[in-house]
Amino acid sequence: MIRFCLPLILCLLASVAGAQSREINTDDARIEHEGVITGYLDAENPRDVFFVDGLRGEVIRFELMATDGDLDAILAVFDDVGQLALYRDDSAGASGVTHDLTMQRTGRYFVVAGRFGYSLGTTTGRYELRMTRKGVLSERGSTLRYGDSVIGTISDTSAEVYYTIQAEQGDILTISMVRSSGTLDPYLRVVNSDRFVIAENDDQPGAETRNARIDGLIIHKSGAYIIMATRYDDSSGSFVLSVDEADGSGQGQSPQAPLPIAFGDTRSGSLNAVQFERFYAFEAAEDDLITISMARGEGGDLDSYLVLGDSEFAPLAEDDDSGDGQNAKIIDFRIPAAGQYHITATRFDGNIGTTSGDYRLSLELLDDPFVDVPPGAVSLELGASVSGRISAENPADTYAFYGRQGDIVSISMTRVDGNLDALLELLNGAQEVVTRNDDRAANDQNALINHFTLPATGTYYIRARRYAGTDGDPDTAGNYVLVLAERAG
């Protein structure tokens, strides 16, 4: 059995039965709700110490049973300041102890399973320690857990009853208050730790009832919250209040509560038939250049799939297998505007897919491709269109865009009015002309660079200007529309 040093607790035990200090690993010493622990007590180990985290108002049943030998079992429970909350010897002729304990405060409780007399005792044997959560008191101030239901009464002398609940960021709650007697018109409020009302309801929406219900309450900050059960007007009666965790609750499990991820972070997760997608959110600045990678972990057959969305989850880019093997990768995506963006990490075919397994999600911020762009150059995205005017006062406009090696682009410059003889030049990052076009066809003074394959990854420039040769009018002018389009390979 693993041991743990509890000087204060064991000093108190020593005053009762002369117990000696021992060590126990705190992680392995935890008793979970509905948990069962077995152990062996003898002269070398006269008692074992465990802990449980309790909430005010909870009713916990402790059962300590001797399962062999002549063990005379003793059960003691202390709170986190060393106050004795429970001490029981087995009943005469019995082989164990059973007792219900109401937690008087929220905190950590230490549970001692020992033999009568502890180090001075003589009995030995194996034991089984079981903890069962029986429920929670309905009295004012009790702390609730998800799935709890409590009964209360609202009257002129007690117009409101409050409860507390510990919630984690990303949790999604449903809270209901149903009249069980009297004329009560239930009213619910939820208050955060800063004393602000974050949700309230009088009559359940869409129902022909006066019962109160708060649906889909998203917790944005981990901590304690107060649920106030009260009434509308001067009605009175009994009620049943329930707190439940809604479907999709838990950070990252729904679009309403995405997990935060920052540049340079790597997040781990797992996908299966039940949870086939997870959601993440990050902040980005305009023109940030990012790469998102989703790699399959050890084991499983996950076929990764990535979706990058805007603040409303509208898709901006998605990928299946651009990484190694069946790994997904959105490469060199340029952020169109400052704000919040979302990543959906899922599998090929989503809810009807069949693959599953662990994954690692990485978000990378690349060097700004436009940091050395000359002043006055306008940055464009593939698929963008822009208008301008060429004249003696403004003989050329310059645009910049980011492209990857192998991208196929078309650039058109179409006259809108005037006598403009359009001319297009495409330049690389060193501002060297890589291709140009004057007239896209005979007797057509509009310019077109058609289906050009970019030779390298990096920043490119488009120079929109007018023809200035000696065999034509060098002083044409007019408005134009320029389109930068990406073509399929």
Protein model, in words:
Helices cover 2% and strands 50% of the residues. The chain has one helix spanning 7-17, and strands at residues 36-41, 47-54, 58-66, 73-78, 84-89, 96-102, 107-115, 125-136, 143-144, 149-154, 161-167, 172-179, 186-191, 197-201, 212-218, 223-231, 237-245, 259-260, 266-271, 277-284, 289-296, 304-309, 315-319, 328-334, 339-347, 357-365, 378-379, 385-390, 396-403, 408-415, 422-427, 433-437, 447-453, 458-466, 478-487.
Give the low-pLDDT segments. Answer: 1-27
CATH architecture field of the largest domain: Sandwich
Q: Count of DSSP E strands?
A: 35
**Approximate shape:** elongated
Distance between the termini: 66 Å
Q: What percent of residues adopt helix (DSSP H or I)?
A: under 10%
Per the CATH scheme, the topology name of the largest domain is: Jelly Rolls
Helix-strand category: mainly beta
CATH class of the largest domain: Mainly Beta
What is the rounded Rg?
Answer: 35 Å
DSSP strand content: over 45%
Q: Give a short account of the largest sheet.
A: 5 strands, mixed
Number of helices: 1
Number of domains: 4
Spatial sequence of strands, sheet with the most strands:
9-11-16-13-14
Mean pLDDT: 87
